[in-house]
Amino acid sequence: SGLLSRLQTSAPTAQTLSSSSSKSFSQNIPSCLWKLGRLNHVAIAVPDLEKAQSLYKDVLGAQVSETVALPEHGVYTVFVELGNTKLELLHPLGEKSPIASFLQKNKTGGMHHICIEVDDIKAAMTELKKKKIRILSEEPKIGAHGKPVIFLHPKDCHGVLVELEQA
């Protein structure tokens, strides 16, 4: 009886804290000329693309795309469909591939970047530059989905390489 009454009295307190903190949080969000959208994909660098494809397709039963070469980005890509998002498997293409240098440091592969959709990539670039967030290219490049993409410097994003993709 004592435990039950303590649980019942603590529950409303948690709701009160939750609703008041969410109100103050939303009031602190500045209005932007652009908006973040959904998580498009999480990219994973892999040393053996065929083995990685086989894991997701044959072992886990996922729908896996064909391999696509993106010479401008120095990568081969494969997308794994997950329903609400995708995984992007990345493998080096050419000696100057950023994935080759990533795999030299991380021999077994690992998470490389996250990709978040934006509704206006040019407005995002302008505003992020004003906020001292470094962008790794002067102009967007066409990414694996045929849409403009940019990458934000991981040191400005708490150690995460963030890709923004035009929705």
TrEMBL record:
Q: What is its EC number?
A: 5.1.99.1
Enzyme class of the recorded protein, top EC level: isomerase
Respond yes or no to whether keyword Metal-binding is given for this record: yes
Q: Where is the composition biased (Polar residues)?
A: 1-17
The UniProt catalytic activity note for this protein reads: (R)-methylmalonyl-CoA = (S)-methylmalonyl-CoA
Coiled-coil segments: none
Q: SUPFAM superfamilies per the record? A: Glyoxalase/Bleomycin resistance protein/Dihydroxybiphenyl dioxygenase
Q: InterPro entries given for it? A: Glyas_Bleomycin-R_OHBP_Dase, MeMalonyl-CoA_epimerase, MMCE/EMCE_epimerase, VOC_core
**The organism sits in which domain of life?**
Eukaryota
Q: Where are the transmembrane segments?
A: none
One of this protein's Pfam families, by short name? Glyoxalase_4
Would I find Transcription regulation among this entry's keywords?
Answer: no
Question: Which Gene3D superfamilies did the record assign?
Answer: 2,3-Dihydroxybiphenyl 1,2-Dioxygenase, domain 1
Q: Which UniProt keywords apply?
A: Cobalt, Isomerase, Metal-binding
Q: Name one GO molecular function term.
A: methylmalonyl-CoA epimerase activity
What are the GO BP annotations of this UniProt entry? L-methylmalonyl-CoA metabolic process
Taking every annotated instance into account, which residue ranges of this chain make up the domain VOC?
A: 38-167
The record's annotation in NCBIfam families points to: metmalonyl_epim
Listed PANTHER family: METHYLMALONYL-COA EPIMERASE, METHYLMALONYL-COA EPIMERASE, MITOCHONDRIAL
Give the protein's function: Methylmalonyl-CoA epimerase involved in propionyl-CoA metabolism.
Q: Which protein family is named in the record? A: Belongs to the methylmalonyl-CoA epimerase family.
Q: What is the name of this protein?
A: Methylmalonyl-CoA epimerase, mitochondrial
Organism source for this protein?
Loxia leucoptera
